[in-house]
């Protein structure tokens, strides 16, 4: 089964593997609080279950994968609503200048007059748009996973009906 010229199952395996790598990176590099660590772990288990369900090709597992994918799609709207505003206000307020990483300071004198309110506003708007584009991309990936899993589930339902006693030939 294909969508366009791409076979569906390898595309789902690739997207879920990328999701596993992303959740591993979020867990390793992200904040290390108990609640904030649960989100990458849940996303890791979700993508692992997605790979398992597609490999097993069982109707029940695929239906649960379809439900979980829709839930992940709906939950990925929350960062789309929050992160652009937070990042834009973070950059526009000048808080980026106070960040210190690995003993090095951000030096605004190398980049011109970064302390002017006009520059901070433009910098904040650009940062907000960049984060918004990234969040929209992740929503699109989750929605694409949902469409692919739905197609595999429908194919398996039809195959099961045809090869069991539930199919009546005309």
Automatic annotation (TrEMBL):
Top-level lineage group: Eukaryota
Keywords: Membrane, Transmembrane, Transmembrane helix
Entry-linked InterPro entries: Glam1
Record keyword Nucleotidyltransferase present: no
Spans traversing the lipid bilayer: 35-55, 67-92, 121-144
Stated name of the protein: Transmembrane protein
Organism name: Caenorhabditis elegans
